[in-house]
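Review box. Two proteins, two foldings.
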Amino acid sequence: MILTELNSAIDASLAEHGHIRFTDEVFRTMDTIQVDAIRQKYGTRALLMLPEHEIVFMEWLKENDRPVWDDLWAAEPVPYLVSLAYLSDFSGKNIGGGYVICDLAVEDNYYFSPQLLLEKESDAFVDAVRDRFASRRSLTPAQLLALEASMGPVDVWHFAHRHDLAIDKVKDAVQVLVNDRILLHIPNADHLVQYFDVH
């Protein structure tokens, strides 16, 4: 889809829904130049509906951790609308990307990234986990979470959903990693933002 077609589709979506909705196919084919152009043209006046796979996840979250879902969406007249700043998280090579939960106001955040791995303590641990993973040996939830956090941002809810684990089991894994001084857990969004930009 060329940019003029995207702009026409966006204008039609805004007229019909009051926000931007894209199909998975449109998300998949969008390149970085188109994402930047859309942000520039519509960024201050339009919101984006999450992709279908993220809506499925959010409905799972609603059933499995309602307080967190409420923290994210209960005050919103239409749930699942986000800033166009997140468009690149779902487009092109990031087609399966998620709306990582990192700025809860009431509930504790369980957001992790490479910056939250304690360098000296975690290096050997993560290297050993990578070796286990590469040799196709089983990993505990704590090992798998540390591995994912070493590769990029992850929250416990997406992690639990992706690996079909109970949220409490994943939170227990976080506690193991914190106790072993592998991972830093910062539950407060105001403190979390001091480490890096979380949108």
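Next protein.
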Amino acid sequence: MSTNVTLDRFKNNFLVLIDICQEMVEEGSENNVSDISPTAFRIIKIVASRLKPNFLIERFISKTHKYWDKIKQKDLSYFKGVGLDFLNFADDNGIDNVIPSEDKGIFTGLKVDHINSFSKILEGKYKDENGNEVELFDDDKVQDVWKIMHSFVKQSIVYIHEQRQIIDGVPTKEYYSDINLTENIQTWNIKKLM
């Protein structure tokens, strides 16, 4: 697999995750359990769609690689607590610091404190018209998110392998040398790298 294919898959999966999040934001807003406006989230989605795939995957690796075991175990408390931090692509420095220069005018000065608000949505519940309790982050969404998170880790491992430019089992470049690639390839059962 080439680096471009890996990056394209990562970005496509990232956009699917953003779609899941948007659905939860809209449902939360409709049922008064979200303080994120659907309009503001659509802006976040536009920004996210403009981010370069290598920025996304490198951001994911840097913010999550120490917790890949928790992702593998599907540790929901980790995900709800700190696992979404990788979505904070603005690093609280403003979105205009991470988007392409030609788009800066649209988003100048916009800052987003969406991680704390989104964490609340993950815990959000409301009563439907029949009085039944409905969770915004229901079992189907949880399973979809784990599938995406697992794909992120696998794509990250492939990306690291590609960046290290391994020849005859020896890396020719340093890239996240603190990540044990052999162990992660085995743990995540990435057959094409075995």
